Amino acid sequence: MHRSVGITRTEHLTFDEPLVLESGASISPVTIAYETYGRLNREKSNAILVCHAFSGNAHAAGYHAGDDRPGWWDTIIGPGKALDTDDYYVICSNILGGCNGTTGPASIDPKTGERYGLSFPIITVADMINLQKRLIDHFGIQQLLAVVGGSMGGMQALQWSVSYPEMVRKVVAIATTARSTPQQIAFNEVGRQAIMADPKWNKGEYSNGTIPERGLALARMIGHITYLSDDSMHNKFGRNLQNKEAIGYDFSTEFQVQSYLHHQGESFTRRFDANSYLYITKAIDYFDLSVTGSLAAGFSKAGSAFLVISVSSDWLYPPYQSEEIVSALTANDIEVQYCEIRSNYGHDAFLLESGQLNYMISQFLDRLLVRDVMTDSPIINEQSSMNDAARIMIENGVNHLPVVGNNGQLAGIVTSWDIAKAVACGYQDLDQIISRQVFTAIPEEAIAKVAKLMEEKAISALPVVDDNNQLVGIVSSDSLSTLLGRCTQPKKH
After folding, report:
1. With 70 labelled, which of 61, 216, 387, 468 sits at a CA distance of 20 to 30 A?
2. How far is CA 146 from CA 74, 149, 305, in A?
3. 347 is a catalytic site residue
4. Which of 4, 55, 107, 151 is an active site residue?
5. H or E, element range at 52
6. What is the pLDDT of residues 389-425, one digit of tens each?
7. How far out from the chain centre does Cα 425 lie?
8. Does the pLDDT at position 112 exceed 70?
């Protein structure tokens, strides 16, 4: 069982220097809430920034004292997970404009002593990451190993690659887009209008006791529909009634899906600020990394390696938008890997499909090792006969048979193709078909490196050996294709 990072706490850092925004306005002072997991190494080269989605916060992993629910990405962050805190120093901060510790419209304006409300300046995703950069600079980190994020977090990760290309080695962008579409803007606008139509919103001037609950709940219900898929809603709810035996021919909450949406909306009002909803969705609307309509031009200065992950059933940020990012990167001869999460969960799969995500991210960060995927293999002594080799292959259903000497060390390899060739050519001795010049792997080697070697050398299997050249397993192209089949490495132009 994977371990947790344990008890964590949210820290706060305040900068007195004004933060100048894309709009030309500025905020001063500005506070950022953050959490860290793992240990920053002496070279400060193992830091990974995790960017949260729309309604997320800095609490990405572990447990706050007294809580029984972990952080929102605890399945991905921690010892033995993709973002392994035994190796990496993971940072997650609450976004600018948020309502979970970082300065936003719900914060107190030092000039007035009252909440900012709508006097808070309009912000963009670029403004969010500019504040994050101040945090990274505070840690003395000159270059991030990776920036990782899903949904709006993916937008931030992409923005990092454009705004500060020299500071990011790798980018993982999950279930996201490089520019908001009219449909996405439309959904955001409906949510904003729902909030502003609530009389309690009062042009943004509301107190804790008079928050626009109905408007904010409705906005969340609208948004939550886009996070799911038709299949996930059918599988979860179907047309089942909620605590009823038959329909009532009225306007009460009758179906389970209705009850679910009401619950999501109501619970959201207890943890999120309505004005933050307005500001953050506006920042998403403005997000567009293209230059004069061209994404390729927008990514022309990016220098990171990229992993772009889509979700097969995501209709909020559908796969074609991830493919557009991949095309723009390949047009600039930028290293990029594209993967697709196979899931019926819809957009929310980036939070739920931990197995696929752990594999994809680990592989990209070179954390998946040969020992994680190698299999046991039968062996044959180099003094054995051709018939012995054929029999062992048939009995074990294998196409590759490592050959060892009397000392137990790897001496070569024989394949089913070699056996067939021997029969056709009339060879009698096993030694006539043993391949003595064999490429090998070691258990601690990155599987991505091994897969590349096998592709370049047209090798269908690699024996895995220890320091004494003793066979410990085998990696075959069949097993790799099963693991890597969902991911592609686009060819560079």
Report:
1. 216
2. 18, 10, 9
3. yes
4. 151
5. none
6. 999 999 999 999 999 999 999 999 999 999 998 889 8
7. 53
8. yes
The rounded percent of the chain whose pLDDT value lies above 70 is: 96
Q: Residue 425 corresponds to which tokens in the numbers above?
A: 């050519």
11-15 and 30-37 strand pairing: antiparallel
Closest to 169 (Cα-Cα) out of 326, 46, 74: 46
Residue linked to tokens 């619950």:
263
| Catalytic residue of the set 198, 314, 348, 418 | 314
Question: Is 341 within 8 Å of 361 (Cβ atoms)?
Answer: no
Catalytic position from the list 52, 59, 224, 347: 347
Closest CA to 35 of 98, 82, 101, 83: 101
The first and second tokens of residue 343, run together, are 């899931």
Kindly indicate the confidence band of residue 491, based on its pLDDT and cuts at 50, 70 and 90: very low
Domain assignments of the chain as residue spans, ordered by start? 1-179+287-367, 181-286, 372-488
The span from the CA of 254 to the CA of 215, in Å, is 21
Q: Is the pLDDT of residue 57 over 60?
A: yes
Q: What is the pLDDT of residues 429-451, one digit of tens each?
A: 898 999 998 999 998 787 777 88
Q: What's the average model confidence in pLDDT over 156-160?
A: 98
Indicate the Cα dihedral angle 286, 289, 290, 295, nearest 10°.
-140
Radius of gyration of the chain (CA): 27
Residue count of the chain, please give it: 493
* Average pLDDT for 84-91: 96
Is 116:27 a contact under the CB 8 Å cutoff? no
Neighbours of 420 (CB within 10 A): 12
**Residue 357, C-beta contacts closer than 8 angstroms, at least 6 positions apart:** 75, 76, 82, 174, 309, 341, 350
Q: By percentage, how much of the chain surpasses pLDDT 90?
A: 85
For 69-224, strand residue ranges (E) read 89-93, 144-150, 168-174
Cα–Cα distance list, 259 to 237, 252, 266, 362, 461 (Å):
10, 10, 11, 38, 54
Q: Render the burial of 128-144: b for 16+ CB within 10 Å, e for the rest.
A: bbbbbbbbbeeeebeeb
In 374-482, the DSSP E strands lie at 380-381, 400-404, 410-415, 461-465, 471-476
Q: Which CATH superfamily is domain 1-179+287-367 in?
A: Alpha/Beta hydrolase fold, catalytic domain (3.40.50.1820)
How is domain 181-286 classified at the architecture level of CATH?
A: Orthogonal Bundle (1.10)
Q: Is the peptide bond before 199 cis (omega within 30 degrees of 0)?
A: no
Q: Which fold has domain 372-488?
A: CBS-domain (3.10.580)
Q: What is the pLDDT of residue 484?
A: 54
User: Where are the strands (E) in 281-367, listed by range?
Assistant: 305-311, 336-341
pLDDT of residue 133: 98
Is residue 67 annotated as a catalytic residue, yes or no?
Answer: no
